[in-house]
Design brief:
Strand content: 15-25%
Number of helices: 9
Order of helices and strands: HHHEEEHEEHEHEEHEHEH
CATH architecture of the domain at 107-328: 3-Layer(aba) Sandwich
Strand order of the largest sheet: 5-4-1-7-9-10
CATH superfamily of the domain at 107-328: von Willebrand factor, type A domain
Helix content: 40-55%
Number of strands: 10
Distance between the termini: 35 Å
CATH topology of the domain at 107-328: Rossmann fold
Bound molecules: 2-acetamido-2-deoxy-beta-D-glucopyranose
Structural class: alpha/beta
Shape: globular
C-alpha cells in the first residue's frame, strides 16, 4: 500500500529521504543546467553583450546592443525588417556551427598579465578597509584563480605572457606546477612594476599573436571527429590594466584571423580601469578590446571595486567547453522566495 510505504519511509528514514530528495534535486538541477548550457552553446546567436558595464557609457558597435534601439525608432518597419534579416542570418549561422564535445578536457591557460597601469595610487578597498594597489589586487585574484583551476583539474596548465609598456614577453612556458607560475608572476611584478605609469598611447596585439604562434599549439577541430574531445583547449586570459593606452587589435593579421576560427582556442578579457573615466579613455579601450571576441569570449570590466573584480574572476573559472555564452549565463543559485 502506498500509504503504508510512505509512512514507513517517514518513520524509518526521514533524514535519509531528506538527503535523497536534496541529492535528486541537485542532480536534476545540474543535469538540467548541463543540458541547457549545451543547447545554449549550440543554438544561441553568437554575438554577445558584455554584462553590466560598471560605468562606461559604451557606444560599442556589437549587434546585440541594437536590441536596445528596437521599438524606439521612428521607422519601426525598417528596423524590424533589418532585425528579422539579422535573426535569420544568426539562425542559419547556428545551424552551421559545429557541435563541440562539452567535456572538461585539460585547459592550457595563457595568463596575459599587464604590468603597466596608469595610477598606482588608485587603490582597491575591501569591506574591512584593507587596500590593494592594482598589481597586488591582480596578484590576489590570480592566486585565487590558479589555485581554484588547479583544484578543479590538476592537469590544467598555465603559461605567463607579460604585457610590458610597449611589447609582450613570454615569461613562463606551460606548466601545471603552481610554484613555477607564481614565481614567474612575482619576478615579473618585481622587475617591471618599478617603472612609472604607462605613457604609451597604444599597445599592439599583433606582437602578442606572434608570440602565441611561436609558443602555443592549438588542437585542430575536425568535423568528422567532432564527437571526440580534443586533448586540451587553449584559453588566453587578457588582464588589461591601462586606462589611457589603446589596444590595437590587428583585424587583418592572418594569424589572428586563423585564431578566431579555432574552435579550441578562446580569448577572455578582464579590463580593470581607473575610476575617473572622464579623465581616461576607458570606454574606447573597452570597445577596442571587444574586437578580440569571436562570439565565445567572456568579457568583463571593472573599476576599483574589490567585490566586483572577485566576482569577475570567479565567473572566469568556468570551462570554455562547458559554459554557456556569457550573454545568457545566469549565476542565480536555487530559487528565490
Ligand atoms: C520607413 O522605411 C520605409 C522603407 O524604407 C519607407 O518607405 C518609409 O517612408 C519610412 N517611414 C518613415 C516614417 O520614415
Ligand atoms: C620554454 O621552453 C623552451 C624550450 O624547451 C626553452 O628554450 C625556453 O627557455 C623556455 N622559456 C621559458 C620562459 O621558460
Ligand atoms: C561593487 O560591485 C558590487 C558587485 O558588482 C556591487 O554590488 C557594489 O554596489 C559595487 N560597489 C560600488 C561602491 O560601486
Ligand atoms: C536567473 O535564474 C533565476 C531563477 O533561478 C531567475 O529568477 C532570474 O530571472 C534569472 N535571471 C536571468 C537574467 O535570466
Amino acid at each position: 500500500m502506498r500509504v503504508t510505504h510512505d509512512n514507513q519511509l517517514t518513520a524509518d528514514s526521514t533524514q535519509q529521504s531528506d538527503y535523497l530528495a536534496k541529492y535528486l534535486a541537485l542532480y536534476f538541477f545540474v543535469s538540467l543546467t548541463a543540458v541547457l548550457s549545451v543547447s545554449a552553446y549550440n543554438t544561441i546567436p553568437s554575438e554577445m553583450e558584455v554584462e553590466s558595464p560598471e560605468m562606461i557609457p559604451s557606444d560599442n558597435s556589437h549587434p546585440a546592443s541594437d536590441s536596445n534601439d528596437f521599438g524606439n525608432s521612428e521607422n519601426n518597419s525598417q528596423l524590424s525588417d533589418d532585425h528579422i534579416t539579422q535573426l535569420q542570418q544568426q539562425v542559419i549561422a547556428n545551424f552551421q556551427k559545429p557541435n563541440l564535445p562539452n567535456v572538461n578536457v585539460p585547459e592550457r591557460i595563457i595568463i596575459c598579465l599587464d604590468v603597466c597601469c596608469d595610477d598606482k595610487s588608485s587603490l582597491f578597498r575591501l569591506g574591512d578597509g584593507t587596500t590593494f594597489t592594482p598589481f597586488n589586487m591582480m596578484k590576489r585574484i590570480l592566486d585565487f584563480f590558479l589555485h581554484s583551476k588547479h583544484a578543479i583539474n590538476k592537469r590544467t596548465e598555465f603559461a605567463l605572457l607579460v604585457m610590458t609598456e610597449s611589447e609582450p614577453l613570454w615569461a613562463q612556458n606551460f606548466t601545471n606546477n603552481l610554484k613555477d607560475i607564481f614565481n614567474a608572476i612575482d619576478c615579473t611584478l618585481l622587475k617591471d612594476c618599478a617603472t612609472n605609469g604607462c605613457t604609451t598611447e597604444s599597445f599592439d596585439f599583433q606582437n602578442v599573436f606572434q608570440l602565441i604562434k611561436q609558443k602555443v599549439g592549438i588542437p585542430e577541430f575536425k568535423q568528422e571527429e567532432c564527437i571526440l574531445p580534443p586533448p586540451y583547449v587553449v584559453r588566453m586570459l587578457v588582464l588589461y590594466g591601462r586606462s589611457n593606452c589603446l589596444p590595437l587589435i590587428p583585424q587583418d593579421d592572418p594569424y589572428f584571423i586563423f585564431l578566431k576560427k579555432q574552435m579550441y582556442f578562446y580569448i577572455d578579457i578582464l579590463l580593470a580601469h581607473e575610476e575617473e573615466c572622464g579623465e581616461y579613455k576607458c570606454a574606447e579601450i573597452y570597445d577596442a578590446l571587444q574586437d578580440l571576441d569571436n562570439g565565445y569570449s567572456y568579457v568583463f570590466e571593472v573599476s576599483r571595486n574589490a567585490t566586483k573584480i572577485h566576482d569577475c574572476i570567479a565567473k572566469l573559472l568556468a570551462h570554455p567547453l562547458q559554459r554557456p555564452l556569457q550573454r545568457i549565463a545566469n549565476y542565480t543559485f536555487g530559487v528565490r522566495q
